[in-house]
Amino acid sequence: MIIRNVRILGGEPVDIRVADGAIAEIGPGLAGENTVDGAGAIALPGLVDLHTHLREPGREDAETVQTGTQSAARGGYTAVHAMANTSPVADTAGVVEQVWRLGREFAHCDVHPVGAVTVGLEGRQLAELGAMADSAARVRVFSDDGRCVDDAVLMRRALEYVKAFDGVVAQHAQEPRLTAGAQMNEGVVSGRLGLTGWPAVAEEAIIARDCLLAAHVGSRLHVCHVSTAGSVEIIRWAKSKGWNVTAEVTPHHLLLTDDLVEESPVGAYNPIYKVNPPLRTRADVEALRAALADGTIDIVATDHAPHPVEDKETEWSAAAMGMVGLETALSVVQEAMVETGLLDWAGLAQRMSVVPARIGRLAGQGQPIEVGAPANITLYDPSARTKVDPSAFASKSRNTPYEGMTLPGRVVATFLRGRPTVLEGKLV
Ligand SMILES: [Zn+2]
Predict the structure, then answer these.
(1) Distance of alpha carbon 333 from alpha carbon 343, whole angstroms
(2) Which of 94, 143, 263, 369 sits a CA distance of 20 to 30 A from 350?
(3) Distance between CA atoms of residues 110 and 52, nearest Å
(4) Residue 185 — very low, low, confident or very high, per pLDDT cuts 50/70/90?
(5) In this predicted structure, what is the pLDDT of residue 48?
C-alpha cells in the first residue's frame, strides 16, 4: 500500500510505502497500486496516550475497550495506557491480563494496562507489582490514579519495587486531607461561588515529596495531570537536579480556566467543567503551556474520563469528575500550542507520541516515521475547522467541555502497523 502526498511533520510532500506493517520506502512519486490519498495532510507518528480510562471491566455503561479504542483511533492514537481504577481494580496479574486480552481481541489501537500501586486502590497494602510486570500484559506503568498514594512509606516502597523491572510510578498528586470535599480550584471564583476550594498546595506538596522520594531511592516517578504553576516550578527544580522525573499535562488544562464554572456558554455551575484536578487560573494555564514548550512538562496525556449522562448531568456537588478527551486532544493541543507558536509539529510529535511511548517503555510505538519503523501513522489536516459535536463521538460518553466550540484540525486517517483504523475521518 502507498500513502500518497503527505507531509511528514509538516515537511515537503512525499509518498510512504507500507509493507508487512512497516514503512518500506519514503520518497516522491513512488510507483504502485493500492493507494490512499493523503491530500497534503501532515503525517505524525501514531499518538500514544499514557493516561486513558477505558472503564472496562465494571463500567461498560460509560466505555468499553472497544468504544474507548475506537475513540482513540478517531483521535489519531495508536496506543493507550488503560488506567487501573476499574471494577474489579487492575491490581493483579489476572485483571491486567483480562484487559490486555480484551485489547488484543477488540481494540482499534494497542492497549497497555496500567497496574494499581495498592490493593483495591485503598492505599494500605502494595499490590502484586512484580506479578503484573511478569504477566502477559508486561505492565511497566503503575498508578492508583483517581486516588493519591498519600502514604509516604508505601510510595517509597512502590518506587523501590518498580526499579527491578524498569517500571514507573505515575502519581495522582492530591493530598487528601487538604482536598476533603473540594469542588473546584481554590481561588477568587470558588470564594464568590461559595464552593469548597481545592488548593494548589495540595498538588504541589505531594509532587515535592515524591520528587524527593524518587531521588532518594533512585527510581522513576511520573507526575500525572500537572495543573498549577507551582507544580511546574517544583518539577523544573527536580529536573535541574538530574532526577528521573517526568510529567504530563492534559489538553483541557492547557485551554480552560476555572472562570468557566461561574460563567460559560452552557451556564454557571455546569458540571461539564468538573474535573480532577480542577481547572485552574489563566496564570496556571500560561505556566503549563510554557512548561510543555520548554520540556519541563514532558508530554500531553488525555485523562480521557468517560461518564454516563446520569453521572454528569446532575447538580454540581453530586456530579462525577472528568471529561472525555481522546477525540479532541490533537485539536486542543493545536489550538493551545501550535496556533500560539509555542510548538511546531515535530515538537508536538515528541510530546504526544515519542516521549509517552518511551515513558511507558513501549517498543513498537512512538517511533519516527522512517524506513524500517512500524507503520503507526496519523494523518492530520490542520487547516480544517470543526465544530465539536459529541453525538458524532465513537466514545460511549459525551461529557466534553468543547461541545459547540469550533476547534482547528481534523484527523483524516490513522494507521496501526499499516492497517487503517480510520480513513477519511471515519472508523474502518
Ligand atoms: Zn488522576
Answers:
(1) 9
(2) 143
(3) 12
(4) very high
(5) 99
**Contact of 321 with 238, CB cutoff 8 Å:** no
Domain boundaries, the chain: 45-367
85 to 42, 88, 119, 185: CA distances (angstroms): 35, 8, 11, 23
CA of 275 to the centre of ligand 1 (A): 9
Q: How many CA atoms lie within 13 A of 21 on its CB side?
A: 5
pLDDT of res. 333:
98
Identify the residue whose cell numbers are 527510581.
219
Q: What is the pLDDT averaged over residues 239-243?
A: 98
CA of 419 to the centre of ligand 1 (A): 32
CA of residue 410 to ligand 1 center, whole Å: 27
Residue pair 71/109 in contact by the 8 Å Cβ criterion = no
Report pTM.
0.98
To the query of whether residue 37 is one of the catalytic residues in this protein, the response is no
Name the CATH topology of 45-367.
TIM Barrel (3.20.20)
Catalytic residue among 110, 298, 303, 381: 303
What is the Cα gyration radius of the chain? 20
What is the pLDDT of the chain when averaged over all its residues? 97
* Residue 374: DSSP 8-state: B
What is the model's pLDDT at position 198?
Answer: 97
Residue 358 Cα distances to 23, 49, 354, 361, angstroms: 20, 11, 6, 5
